[in-house]
Amino acid sequence: MVQVTAAPDCGNAPKKQVLRDVTVALAERDTEKLLSAVADDVEWEIVGRRTVHGKSGFAAAVTAAAERQAETLRLDSILTHGSEGAVGSRMGFPGGGGMRCCDVYAFSGHGKTAKIKRITSFWIEA
Hints:
Elements: E1 3-6, H1 14-27, H2 31-37, E2 38-46, E3 50-53, H3 54-65, E4 72-81, E5 84-92, E6 98-107, E7 116-125
Parallel strand pairs: 1-4, 2-7
Antiparallel strand pairs: 2-3, 4-5, 5-6, 6-7
Helix pairs in contact: 1-2
């Protein structure tokens, strides 16, 4: 299990919690949890690496993208407004090394139960 560090939140922003949970699930390579949060026609672009479409492509990309199991995850910022959001984070790996991440999300709507329709990820080895 990944050790997660995050600033306290007001608890009144449901999409912030969704994005927090998705980021933790990605660090833990929890494909089942990730698939429950995305729309059937999800699009995920990992800038400079690949773009996938649909849940099956997304599931395969999660496995390929998360090459190493993260040991630590620091959530620096989670921002949401309307049907969009972004997460700035840092992952640390066992034995050293890490990754700085910025993931930008678009939801299928404004409601609390809206699924993630698009993710654009900017990942840099640190």
